[in-house]
């Protein structure tokens, strides 16, 4: 059994939208019955990547989808922006990396909170996808 | 909306009541430091019970505020962090460096008072706590 | 000539009797067996009767396979062995043999074909049965280990503002996660300023467990509480130092008793004899 059971989209254009995106992630996790710890992990990870889309990508969209697979819940979050792209993904993923203004991208931290985090980036399109998979209860 | 900061004797009291944006967090930092300079308060109590997400940006704002306040001779205590927020922060590899914390406002006030007593200029015979930039105010 | 479905239908009672005999020989029969296999056989007859191919993946067999899966899962839950559940369906092959022989003896080709069909269907069903049985067993195991996780980490308020969590047994990653969450929740719930984590009953503490311990200490500090870890065994101490795990930030005491004394010291409390 597999299929998207629900999905929601938050457009990211202002700092308020970053808050909206992370709260939408928390709600999606809660709706699947995930515990408070996982809700917080997901919301925090979304917050990091949504902020990057706003700061470095000039805004973007965040799509949160949930599906069932073989007795597991899977939440996938995809944040897309059309900014200049992340020049050095490997460096961006190493702790302590920041782009000029002393504010790191928070990507390594976000990656530690979820099961997988994948980045695809080129000038004009950056896509960060993170996923969390939990046993259904 | 600005987050109100109350004054209670030597202590400034402020409470974040809902999830806030990066801009609001930065405004709060500026407001706290300004009030600390304007009033003769020695400590700041920042209650974050209602914050259900604290990410790298918020962590930075919180610990920076504490360090800035300390340069001005004040102490910041963060109270009421939710257990799962603390867990997420640690898992991300973040920490609130050098920031005093307490479980709730009551314990926070107590901790702040103890810390302030220990650095008061007339009380030389009291046990001293280690303090990063002690006597910066004296 | 009659179809396979007709043959099974015509000799239904005889087949069921032979089937039960075979099961009884293996010691598998009980009062519930007869209605259960009757139901199975009837569904099989219906599935074979339809025009579709005799393939258990065909939609015409859906009703039969669904029933078979349910029977198998419920036997797993009731504690039957996998072999007895397997024999249940395999018993039909031999039981139907004589009926098929009687009907098709005039046409050896047809005889061979029909018994091959039946045997193929039954083989498919028995694989399905086995899978369903294993799945049901796995579910039981998962449920039990979840339940164990819940009861294996109690947190107790042992003094004003002091909680204690005794850990017993091997700690894997899942359990370590659970312990951390429970410890932090207990601190917050009880407004505890000190928490004691007693690891006397934990046989092995490796780098992973140590990492979780240091994490929970840092997280608790962010809440405004101190954690005291008590009861590291000599083996644990050796391992941790040899592995170069940095535990300098961790407050440790040898025994639960010493840990409790430290907790009281942190709270600036004292226990004194009366008078």
UniProtKB/TrEMBL annotation, chain A:
SUPFAM superfamilies: ATPase domain of HSP90 chaperone/DNA topoisomerase II/histidine kinase. GO terms for biological process: phosphorelay signal transduction system. Keywords: ATP-binding, Kinase, Nucleotide-binding, Phosphoprotein, Transferase, Two-component regulatory system. InterPro entries: HATPase_C_sf, HATPase_dom. Gene3D superfamilies: Histidine kinase-like ATPase, C-terminal domain. One of its GO terms (molecular function) is ATP binding. The keyword Ribonucleoprotein does not apply. The keyword Glycosyltransferase does not apply. Transmembrane segments: none annotated. Residues 37-136 form the Histidine kinase/HSP90-like ATPase domain. Pfam families: HATPase_c (PF02518). This is ATPase-like ATP-binding protein. It comes from Magnetospirillum fulvum MGU-K5. The lineage of its organism: Bacteria, Pseudomonadati, Pseudomonadota, Alphaproteobacteria, Rhodospirillales.
TrEMBL record, chain B:
Pfam families: STAS (PF01740). Residues 125-138 have a biased composition (Basic and acidic residues). Residues 114-138 are annotated as: Disordered. Residues 1-112 form the STAS domain. Coiled coil: none annotated. It comes from the Bacteria. PANTHER family: RSBT ANTAGONIST PROTEIN RSBS, RSBT ANTAGONIST PROTEIN RSBS-RELATED. This is Antagonist protein RsbS. It comes from Magnetospirillum fulvum MGU-K5.
UniProtKB/TrEMBL annotation, chain C:
Pfam families: RsbRD_N (PF14361), STAS (PF01740). PANTHER family: RSBT ANTAGONIST PROTEIN RSBS-RELATED, RSBT CO-ANTAGONIST PROTEIN RSBRC. Keywords: Phosphoprotein. This is Sigma-B modulator protein. It comes from Magnetospirillum fulvum MGU-K5. The keyword Phosphoprotein applies. Residues 152-267 form the STAS domain. The keyword Hydrolase does not apply. Gene3D superfamilies: STAS domain. It comes from the Bacteria.
């Amino acid at each position: 059994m597999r299929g998207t059971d629900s999905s929601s989209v938050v457009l990211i254009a202002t700092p308020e939208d970053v808050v909206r995106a992370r709260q939408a992630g928390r709600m999606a996790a809660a709706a699947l019955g995930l515990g408070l710890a996982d809700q917080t992990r997901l919301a925090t990870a979304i917050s990091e990547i949504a902020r990057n889309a706003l700061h470095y990508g000039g805004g973007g969209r965040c799509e949160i989808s949930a599906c069932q697979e073989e007795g597991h819940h899977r939440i996938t979050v995809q944040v897309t922006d059309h900014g200049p792209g992340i020049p050095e993904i490997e460096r961006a993923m190493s702790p302590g990396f920041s782009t000029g203004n002393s504010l790191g991208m928070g990507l390594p931290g976000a990656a530690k909170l979820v099961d997988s985090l994948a980045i695809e980036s080129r000038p004009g399109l950056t896509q960060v996808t993170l996923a969390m998979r939990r046993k259904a209860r | 909306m600005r987050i109100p900061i109350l004054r209670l004797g030597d202590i400034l009291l402020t409470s974040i009541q809902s999830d806030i944006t990066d801009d609001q967090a930065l405004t709060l930092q500026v407001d706290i430091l300004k009030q600390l300079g304007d009033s003769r308060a020695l400590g700041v109590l920042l209650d974050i019970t209602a914050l259900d997400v604290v990410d790298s940006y918020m962590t930075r704002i919180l610990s920076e505020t504490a360090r800035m306040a300390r340069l001005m001779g004040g102490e910041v205590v963060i109270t009421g962090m939710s257990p799962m927020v603390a867990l997420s922060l640690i898992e991300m590899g973040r920490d609130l460096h050098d920031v005093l914390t307490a479980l709730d406002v009551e314990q926070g006030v107590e901790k702040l008072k103890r810390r302030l007593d220990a650095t008061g200029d007339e009380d030389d015979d009291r046990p001293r706590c280690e303090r990063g930039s002690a006597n910066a105010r004296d | 000539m009659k179809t396979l479905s007709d043959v099974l239908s015509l000799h239904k009672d005889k087949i069921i009797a032979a089937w039960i005999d075979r099961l009884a020989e293996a010691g598998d029969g009980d009062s519930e067996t007869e209605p259960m296999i009757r139901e199975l056989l009837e569904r099989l007859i219906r599935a074979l009767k339809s025009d579709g191919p005799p393939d258990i993946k065909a939609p015409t067999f859906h009703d039969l396979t669904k029933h078979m899966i349910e029977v198998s899962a419920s036997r797993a839950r009731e504690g039957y062995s996998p072999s007895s559940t397997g024999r249940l369906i395999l018993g039909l092959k031999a039981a139907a043999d004589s009926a098929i022989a009687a009907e098709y003896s005039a046409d050896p080709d047809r005889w061979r074909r029909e018994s091959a069909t039946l045997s193929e269907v039954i083989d498919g069903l028995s694989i399905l049965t086995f899978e369903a049985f294993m799945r049901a067993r796995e579910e039981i195991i998962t449920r039990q280990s979840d339940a164990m996780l819940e009861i294996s980490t109690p947190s107790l308020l042992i003094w004003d503002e002091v909680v204690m969590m005794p850990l017993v047994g091997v700690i894997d990653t899942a359990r370590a996660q659970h312990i951390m969450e429970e410890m932090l929740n207990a601190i917050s719930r009880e407004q505890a300023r000190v928490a004691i984590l007693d690891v006397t009953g934990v046989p092995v503490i490796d780098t992973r467990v140590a990492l979780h311990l240091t994490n929970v200490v840092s997280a608790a500090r962010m809440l405004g509480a101190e954690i005291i870890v008590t009861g590291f065994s000599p083996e644990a101490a050796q391992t941790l130092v040899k592995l170069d795990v940095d535990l300098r930030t961790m407050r440790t005491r040898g025994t639960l008793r010493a840990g409790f004394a430290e907790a009281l010291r942190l709270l600036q409390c004292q226990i004194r004899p009366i008078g």
